[in-house]
Amino acid sequence: MKRVLISTGGSGGHVVPAINFYNHLKTDFEVALYTDERGAKYIPKNINKRIFDVKKIPDKKILLPIKILFIFFAFIKSIIHFRRTKFDILISTGGYMSLPIVLAAKVFNKKIFLFEPNSIIGRSNKFLLIFSTKVFCYDKNLKGINKKYLNKIIEIPPILNKCFYKDVKKNEDNDEVLKILIIGGSQASLFFSKYLKNEIISLSNKFKIELTQQLSLGFDINKYKKEYNENNIKNNLFFFEENLLCNNNFFDIAITRAGASSIAELAHLNIPFISIPFPHATDNHQLFNSQRYFDLNCCWILEEKNFNSGDVTKIINKIMTNKIEYSEKKKNLKKMSENNTWENINKKVLKYLNEN
After folding, report:
1. Which residues pair with 139 in a beta bridge?
2. What does the pLDDT read at residue 235?
3. Which one, of 83, 84, 106, 73, lies nearest residue 7 by Cα?
4. DSSP 8-class letter at 176
5. Structural domain boundaries of the chain?
6. Where residue 170 falls among pLDDT bands split at 50, 70, 90?
7. Nearest to residue 44, comparing CAs of 242, 246, 245, 264?
8. What's 165-337's CATH class?
């Protein structure tokens, strides 16, 4: 049986797809998952993982020599480790610690598969493309990639948790109640917590609302609850909930950041969304992610730098007045995901990993 090593770390955006790859492969391969301390908190205890920490240095020019030195030491550490650890294939889903591991795998001439869920290639992946066999991605028109590497692109449907494929009942329209979801990804959104409450309260003056909202750590859930209750808004507030959309997906619309995993889950469940991309994301990748769905007429985009109080209210008022545009978006989302079964995705991934 071939041995696959999955390298990941940092935020949930890197680690969650790594866990899903692990579950796709564990039956056909011997699989191990390498991560750092930050990434380990997202990984269930029953998964075979190894902590492989690489000290992260801030992105400042003055610290560049120190950063290179730490990566070099991590590279040597990886070389030493791989001399006594046998594996055939490396899959990297990103994270700072993946860089030295991929370079070390290349020294041992292993097959290297990168994973790029965003619509513009990340900086580490861009650097590592030259060493890779292929790159799995969601967007066949991946931006920022050198033309000579276009033949390395493998477009795959989103790698989601298996729970999304177990007869998930998708939301049907309900004219009596507007069910709104507000999520900011694995690290929540300070902007959403600060500025969307008044939008929701304003909407409650015209519509009956049920709200599920993720708040940033440090915000007083009880205070928010009190204000929503005073405005007759049924609410469920939380800081972080694992696999939220597997357990509760009966939403009419979502307001979300544009991390690749978050919007892929919403798309799979046919939930139209208003995307407010995080403006400080590296290379503005969240805006590119949103733009892909916008071009397919699946979502609305509001840029934070141009955001004005009332913008969300205007979009939802328009939806509730005339549902033609909303229905079109819902229909287009359904087209995107209707053939995306766990089995179909599994076959496609295995096909490329098993190629000689």
Report:
1. none
2. 97
3. 106
4. S
5. 3-157+340-353, 165-337
6. low
7. 242
8. alpha beta
